[in-house]
Amino acid sequence: MELQSISANSLLHVKVAAKVWLTDDIASYELSTLSGDALPAFEAGAHIDLHVPNGPVRQYSLYDLPGEHARYRIAVLRDPDSRGGSVKLLEDVHAGDTLTISAPRNHFALHSATNDCSILFAGGIGITPILCMAQQLSSERRPFELHYCGRTLSGMAFVDRLQETGVGDESNVQVHVDDGAPKQQLDARTAIGAPSDDKHLYVCGPGGFMDHILATARALGWDEEHLHREYFAATSSASSDDEAFEIEVVSSGEIVKVAAGQSAAHALLDAGFDVSLSCEQGVCGTCMTKVLSGTPDHRDLYLTDDERAGNDVFMPCCSRSKTSRLMLDL
Questions:
Q1: Residue 123 belongs to domain spanning
Q2: Is the same domain home to 152 and 71?
Q3: How far is the C-alpha of 92 from the C-alpha of 300, rounded, in Å?
Q4: Cα–Cα 20 to 30 A to 15, which of 108, 179, 245, 255?
């Protein structure tokens, strides 16, 4: 896996060209440059880091492919457990305001083979990158199936959009509602089907929904190379049993001590080392760091099981060490 980072000169200043409420708890933001110039191009699955004014940095998927107008579109769900991100954004940011974002990054890109069939699963607000994938697949005339799941139809954004010409139809797009008729509810085993070299599965949504889809696919014999996922946030991985450990930085030979209640990333930052941080939850992959020796205690949601087993990279924002020392390539 190639390590990626975002430098300071990748930050962009944009204005909120429009804010539209899609449901009672989801608003769409259309972002454009202050000058009207083109924004950096992107493909389906990409996201931006958004610096919430006087708040944290949060990741939002781009749900609309770039068209003739210079704009990005994101959708924000009001999270009752928000730590100052979504609620602050929805309540305080309106059309005409200025925001700081990163250039798009893509850790959830579509497989490039043109004849492959893509099976897309979206749970709730997880529809944002999945909708963009459906648009790209449709425009490239590539086969796909899309399953969009939610609790109630009134709380699901983009249902009408999915039925538009050029995105999908009833033959390849299905909406599944928890409070709907039993016959329309998702049968994951049937929807996923048997594995094949020319089939790829993509899933985004709440953790429990994603775990169910991925576990079902694995039980059907799917391998990790054909399973693609993007999580929104990791659950807290802190433990009262966490122990202190050391980091050896190969470039300088310096030993950095990581306290029991401290993240490896912040220990490195305090010691003067440059660590790129964004989500600080092990979701985005920004801080991924190469491990030369030692065994990480992986607590991220970014790496695949095979990548974790390799133990040659880890996320210092959330992961720790199973050994007394990790040797890092910094």
A1: 117-230
A2: no
A3: 31
A4: 108
